[in-house]
Structure formats: C-alpha cells, structure tokens
Amino acid sequence: MAVHNADIASMFNRTADLLELQGANPFRIRAYRRAARTIADLPQSAARLVKSGADLSELPGIGDDLAGKIAGIVKTGRCPILGQLEKEFPAGLTELLNVGGLGPKRVMALHQSLGIDNIDDLRRAIRAGKIRTLKGFSEKIEQKILHALETRGTQEKRFKWIVADETARPLAAWLSAIEGVKKVVVAGSYRRMKDTVGDLDILVTCAKGSPVIDRFVKHEEVAEIVSRGATRATVLLRSGLQVDLRAVPDISYGAALYYFTGSKAHNVAVRALAVKRGLKINEYGVFKGDKRLAGRTEEEVFRQVGLPYIEPELRENRGEIEAARAGTLPRLVTVEDMRGDLHAHTKASDGRNSLSEMAAAARALGYEYLAITDHSRHLTIANGLDEKRLRKQCEDIDRLNDKLKGITLLKSCEVDILESGKLDLPDSILKELDLAVCSVHYKFDLPAARQTERIIRAMDNPYFNILAHPTGRLIGEREPYALEMERIVRAAKERGCLMEINAQPDRLDLNDIHCRMAKDAGVKLAISTDAHATGHLRYMTLGVAQARRGWLEAKDVVNTLALKALRQALKRK
Ligand code: DGT
Ligand code: CA
Ligand code: CA
Ligand code: ZN
User: How far does the centroid of ligand 3 lie from the alpha carbon of residue 260, in Å?
Assistant: First the structure.
C-alpha cells in the first residue's frame, strides 16, 4: 500500500528539525517545513500523483529537488537525507525533539551547555535544578518540560480522524478485493466520527474458507502481528496505527457491526435494556435463550430491543438511548443540508487560490454562498489585510458578484481579537461587511478568566458575528486555551453572536461536547471549513460530523439557510 501524505509530511518535518539541530541554512529548513505543510494539506494522495506521472514541482513550495525526494519516498518508503541526519546525531537527541516544550534550539542548548543527550540526562538535570538557570530557559519552561516528561507514554497515541481515514479507505478497498470477501466496513470510533481514533476496527463478511485473515496479516504495511485467530487478527501498521480485523458470517453482520461500532458505554447500556426484556445481545446476534431473533442488520437488532435506529455519531451513552425510547432523537444535520461556507481564505492573505477560483469551487459543491474571510492586519505572518486592502477586496467582490451566476460571495474578514478584546479593524470598515468572523490568534496563555473576558469584550462590538475556532486547539499539537466556555456561550446567546465549528481536520473546534452545550443554550452555529485552498472546502463533512456528534439539527446551523434567511439570522440583537 502507498505511502501516505502524513508520512511524507512527517519525514520532511523531522528533516527540518534535524537540520535545525545542525544549524543549517534557515531557508533550507523553511523549505522542508513548507513542503511538509503543502503535502499534509494536499487533498489527493501524493503517492498516487507520483504514480500517475504528475509534476509535483507545480505545487506551491515544491521545487524540482523536493519533488524528486517525494518521488523517492513514494518508491522506497525512505528519505535518504533524513536517514543521514539521523545518523549524525545521537538517537536520544532526536528523541528529545519529541518532548513538548523542546524545539531544536533548546535541544541544542541542552546538548551543548549541559551535555544532555537523552531523556534520562534531561530528567537528571531537571532534578538537579540545572535547566531553569540556563540561558533561554526559565522555571516555567522547566515545569512545562517536566510535565511533558511525566505524561509521556501514559498518554495513548491517538490519530486524527482524517489520518486514520487515509489508511482506512485504501485498506478497506484492498480487503474487498480478496476472494470470498463480501462486505467490508470500518466500525469503532472511526464510524462514530470521533475527532480522533485509537485504532481501526474493521469488519468483513466472507464465504467460508476465504483467505482474508491470512492475507491481511501479510499486508505490506503490517509491522507486527499482535495476535491472530481463525476469524480475527490484530496488527500494528508501520505508521503505528493498530487495526483489529474480524470476519463474521452474514447472519451476524448487523449484530457485529453494532457491537464493534460501540461505543462501549453505549453497548453496555443497551445490553442492560435487552436483559430487562429477557434478551441476550452480543456480536453474534440478539437471542432469547438459544433462539436467534436478530443479527443480519443493525435495524433488526435495534427493533428487537425496542429502539429506533440510532445514528453511529450519537452512540456515546450521552442520553441517546433515553431519547430513542422517548421518540425524541434529533434529526441530525447532513452535509446535503449545507448551503454555503462562512470561512474561507484567498491569496490576499494566506490562502492559495483567487476569489474567482474559490467561488467556482464553492459553486461546484452546490453552494449558494461563500464568505471570503481573509485575515486582518494583526496577523502579519499571514499577510493580514488592513482597512484599505479589505475595502479594495470588497470592491473586487462586488464586481465579481455581478458576473457570477448561482453563487454569491459574501464580504467578510477573519478579524483578530486583540489582547484588549478590541477587534483588529475599525468599525468604519466592519460595518461595510456582510459578516465578521472573529478569532484569537495570539496570547493563548492568558488565565481562563482573562481569555474569557477578552472574547466577551470582543462580542460587545456590534459587528461581531461568528466566533471562529473558539478554543484554538490543534489536535495532538496544541491544547485548547483556558476558557470558561459556559460564560462564552451565554454571552453569545445574549448578544446574538454565533459560534463556529471549524472543520479543518486538525481543529474540529468547537468539539462535539461544546456543540451540544451551545445548542442547549440556544446559540446558533456555523459549520465552516476555514479553507485555505479550493480542496479544503471538502472538509465540510468533518465539521458536519462533529455537529452530528453534538446532536445538531439543520435548524441549529445557520449555513443551512438560504442566503436571505442567513442575512436575517446574522442580525445582532
Ligand atoms: P478508540 O479505538 O479508542 O478510538 O475507540 P473505539 O470505540 O473504537 O474502541 P475499541 O477499538 O476499543 O473497540 C471497538 C468497539 O468494540 C467499541 O466501541 C465497543 C466494542 N467493545 C470493545 N470492548 C468492549 C467491551 O468490553 N464490551 C462491549 N460491550 N463492547 C466492547
Ligand atoms: Ca477503535
Ligand atoms: Ca479496537
Ligand atoms: Zn481562517
């Protein structure tokens, strides 16, 4: 199976880290990081592009040299320059790079001034109080490193949903092609669309004597066979992702799918319900004594325990069973309900495409509108727009809208919320916009009360419409900033502000729990992709998935509305 985009990106990022340790030319380092970002963001598989003979050097940030390296990685699974660099440094030193709070500069400082070469050395130095006094360090940084060391290894490794998906899809297709295999479905948290996935649980139905288990454990991506039996196997892939495979007969398909979709908490609660009816429910079916009552489909399993079908995204034992019994399950929002996207960037700031390219891509998705939300001036690294440039963009949008058919671009901006709670652009331009999407991009480490007040103060501005990526988390990379979410939600409700579900695969912010909190408080949400390229508009499905996990219906989500109704819904109280 192919090398994934995430693999290539991680090799390039590691190369950049090691080049930084080496003190290499900053331009060279940046080139690797930029290429890593480009590949990670690529909507198609880089491996497939290489194999189809596409010219990768046409991608932004990828020259002939890097294109050649990518082709090499796709062919061999290895990156020679990374291999060389890894040999140059003690293995322990590169491991230090993975400790939170330590970047290449700090690792090099520790190495040079204290001779720290590995994690044990680091622990000893912290205990001896040597780190805090080092130039470029502090007691706070020492604490951060210590915390990272303490939680190391105790935190199970989880994969972003989209990373799991990059493995799940081709693997499922590959399994389908094995003789005797009928159905293949990926269950578990993947099917429940959790933001992260611990491992993949794949279910197959097959004819007797199918070699599916044998073939599976010999798949070229398999690094280790953890366990195997006649109808099941657990393997570890080279990527570190674990996969559980189960083969079941057709008559048990529904019961097995239901069981392995979980969650465990949901299963346990439903099993108790079944017991009350004198039934037994397991991965083989629903039984009364020895008599099988159901098992072929999930629907018939539900029927036997007296429940309507419950969507996988709801199966967390968070009240869905009670709601199902009471007939009050939500009618979850679907991606077909979405009529537009309210957060997208163009070349004017840090996006990759032009206004008209973004408009065409949105129209191709069947949208009625797309809000153009380039960054505001404070975000200089993203080439944020000042009043003058934004005004010019508004004129461009007006002119383009006159020509466009079937789609309307909305004039907007992703306005930075300054530390004071002021917005980054004056009211004189904000009032010209169709809507303002506002967000925090710096000073993430304020205490919760101050961060909360900063955002609420920003909402006091009458032109504030949508709070974008409200917690600032980057899954697996950056914790959400400290925030009093109940207060934010209440403040949004009082002011008629909306909250965003940012659909970028590494954000998914608000998360499922917060979505539900907002809905329960009567706050409307926008599901937006924060697209930085036309291909990112497709991330809508991921945002919708989190919305569904948060019990949202179409009426809770403003961008399911037609344009006219949307304009009404955006009006502040
Ligand atoms: P993950 O992998 O941590 O993201 O989460 P899941 O939900 O995929 O959990 P996993 O892979 O451990 O198990 C897959 C499903 O199998 C789980 O959602 C429900 C079912 N399952 C696993 N262990 C048990 C159990 O002890 N009892 C019951 N009733 N179901 C279980
Ligand atoms: Ca799983
Ligand atoms: Ca599992
Ligand atoms: Zn944005």
Answer: 8
Domains assigned to the chain: 5-86 (1.10.150.110), 94-151 (1.10.150.20), 159-247 (3.30.460.10), 253-326 (3.30.210.10), 335-569 (3.20.20.140)
Give me the helices (H) in 416-499, please. 427-430, 448-460, 485-495
- What digits encode the pLDDT tens for the residues 189-226? 999 999 999 999 999 999 888 999 999 999 999 999 99
On whether the CB atoms of residues 393 and 548 are closer than 8 A, the answer is no
For residue 448, give both structure tokens. Answer: 């919760």
User: Is the predicted pLDDT of residue 156 greater than 80, yes or no?
Assistant: no
Between the CA of 452 and the centroid of ligand 1 the distance, in Å, is 36
Q: Which is the closest atom of ligand 1 to the Cα of 189? A: 8
Model confidence pLDDT, tens digit, residues 227-263? 999 999 999 998 889 999 999 999 999 999 999 999 9
Pair 201, 258: CB distance under 8 Å = no
The verdict on the CB of residue 234 being under 6 Å from ligand 1 is: no
H helices of 55-134, in order, are: 64-76, 80-88, 91-96, 104-114, 119-127
Is 312 close to ligand 1, i.e. is its CB under 6 Å away?
no
CA dist., res. 566 & res. 251, Å (int): 48
Residue 553 CA to residue 562 CA, distance in Å, equals 16
The phi and psi torsions of 423 (rounded to 5 degrees) equal -90, 155
- Residue 150 CA, ligand 2 centroid: distance in Å: 25
| Ligand 1, pocket-test mutation among 234, 266, 267, most atoms within 8 A of CB | 267
CA nearest neighbour of 350 among 538, 475, 531: 531
| pLDDT at residue 22 is higher than 90 | no
**Atom 30 (ligand 1): residue with closest C-alpha?**
264
Question: Residue 21: what pLDDT?
Answer: 87
C-alpha 166 to ligand 1 mean position (Å): 21
More confident residue, 332 or 78: 332
Q: Which residues pair with 233 in a beta bridge?
A: 228, 245
Instruction: Please give the torsion angle defined by the CA atoms of residues 395, 400, 406 and 409, in that order, rounded to the nearest 10 degrees.
Output: -40
At 183, list the tokens: 């159905």
Helix (H, G, I), strand (E, B) or coil at 347: coil
Which is the closest atom of ligand 1 to the Cα of 262? Answer: 18
Please say whether the beta carbons of 184 and 203 come within 8 A: yes
For residue range 451-500, what is the model confidence (pLDDT) as tens digits?
Answer: 999 999 999 999 999 999 999 999 988 889 999 999 999 999 999 999 99
Q: What is the pLDDT of residue 94?
A: 77
Give the atom of ligand 1 at the shortest distance from the alpha carbon of 264.
19
Distance CA 308, CA 316 (A): 16
- The reported pLDDT for the residue numbered 228 is 94
